[in-house]
Amino acid sequence: MKNWKTVYKTDKLYQVQIVKDYLQDKELHAIIVDKKDSAYQLGYYEIVVAVDEVMRAIKLIEDDIKFE
């Protein structure tokens, strides 16, 4: 995954799914990477996008997505 960069990280599956779906709606190719340990449920999920889409993806996430 050399040409992909992380733009979002969380331990909540529903949040990472919402972010991925939103980015895909904006025509970005976003992929969820599961970094959770299956036995102990430690770790996190991350969204990766192509390196040339990183700045746009981060701006969309910061401007349009809020979890409280």
In short:
This protein is of the alpha+beta class. It has helices at residues 13-25, 54-64; strands at residues 4-10, 30-34, 45-50.
Note down, in words, how this protein is organized.
The chain has helices at residues 13-25, 54-64, and strands spanning 4-10, 30-34, 45-50. It has 68 residues and is α+β, with helices and mostly antiparallel strands. The protein has a single domain (4-64), classed as Alpha-Beta Plaits. The protein has a 3-stranded antiparallel sheet with strand order 1-3-2, with helices on one face. The mean pLDDT is 93.
Which terms would index this structure?
alpha+beta; Alpha-Beta Plaits; globular
- How are helices and strands ordered from N to C? EHEEH
Strand ordering within the main sheet = 1-3-2
Q: What coarse outline follows from CA principal-axis ratios?
A: globular
The helix content is: 25-40%
Strand tally: 3
Average pLDDT reading: 93
Low-confidence stretches: none
CATH topology: Alpha-Beta Plaits
Largest sheet: 3 strands, antiparallel
Radius of gyration: 12 Å
Looking at the overall shape, the CATH architecture is 2-Layer Sandwich
Summing up helix and strand content along with how strands pair, one would put the structural category as alpha+beta
**Tally of individual domains:** 1
Q: State the name of the first-level CATH class.
A: Alpha Beta
Distance between the termini: 31 Å
Proportion of β residues? 25-35%
Number of alpha- plus pi-helical segments: 2
